[in-house]
Amino acid sequence: MTTGTVAPAGDTVAAPRTRTARRPRRRPALTLYTWLVLAWLLLPIAVMVLFGFNDTHSKVNFTWQGFTLTWYRHLFAIPNLTAALVNSLTVALVVTVVATLLGTPIGVALGRHRFRGRGSVDLLLFSAIAAPEIALGAALLSLFIVLGVPRGYWTVVIAHVAFCIPYVAITVRARMAGHDPTLEEAARDLGAGPWTAFRLVTLPALLPGVASGALLCFALSIDDYVITSFNAGRTVTFPLWVYSASRTGVPPQVNVMGTLIFVGGLVIAGANVLFSRRRAA
């Protein structure tokens, strides 16, 4: 038999109070500051896009003279500029593939295993990222001179791969840190070999990190100027051509090409985000 206090028939039991969630306070100053910073970052890009439509009739493309689509129709009218753009695109593609293939196993090893010298490898990777580009470019130039390697297209590729590998390795390592190793162990228990378990279980989980590292390599390579200028020799890339043309006047085709590169980067980055979200879902 249990005893307890029974409320009278006419009384009501008060319900416990529930705390209402506080609405976040609006900070207009912080919002304004954020929009100002974004506007400052996007202003050069907006000017570049705008002056790609400028109806100029001189080499100096600094004064708005009207709207035209002429420069999109005559995008490849300057052979040297077209060749420089092709060099930048092909170098960026080769560097992206090579750096991704070399950097991904390093990231997997750092994220999965503990071995002697792991701290030294970490220090080396972060040092390569933190080092000034002028120091890295000068060091690579000295190396090529000592080895007697003529500077040109492939020295640019080697130089870009050298500073892109750490970005891929660190990105993949961060992705590997969040990977559950028991999934691969379960695949091994079900009869999958080491390579099969890595290819079917681990690699798909790492793909967003690998794709992010590859996109970062492409972006760093295609717009690099300092390291390229040290090791290019007679090879001219898009940034080198634009800098040399700035002394006499940058043609509107440069703005058009820059706009297309920017839009292409946005499309690829957006596709990567959608791909990552679908895999997460």
UniProtKB/TrEMBL annotation:
The keyword Transport is annotated on this UniProt entry: yes
GO cellular component term, pick one: plasma membrane
Example GO BP: transmembrane transport
Cellular localisation: Cell membrane
Record membrane topology: Multi-pass membrane protein
Ranges for region Disordered: 1-22
Transmembrane residue ranges: 32-53, 89-111, 123-147, 153-176, 197-222, 256-275
InterPro entries: Bact_Polyamine_Transport, MetI-like, MetI-like_sf
Residue span(s) of domain ABC transmembrane type-1: 85-272
CDD domains: TM_PBP2
Keywords: Cell membrane, Membrane, Transmembrane, Transmembrane helix, Transport
Gene3D superfamilies assigned to the protein according to its UniProt record, in alphabetical order: MetI-like (1.10.3720.10)
A Pfam family recorded for this sequence: BPD_transp_1
Family according to the record: Belongs to the binding-protein-dependent transport system permease family. CysTW subfamily.
UniProt-listed PANTHER family: PUTRESCINE TRANSPORT SYSTEM PERMEASE PROTEIN POTI
UniProt name for this protein: ABC transporter permease
Native source organism of the sequence: Streptomyces argyrophylli
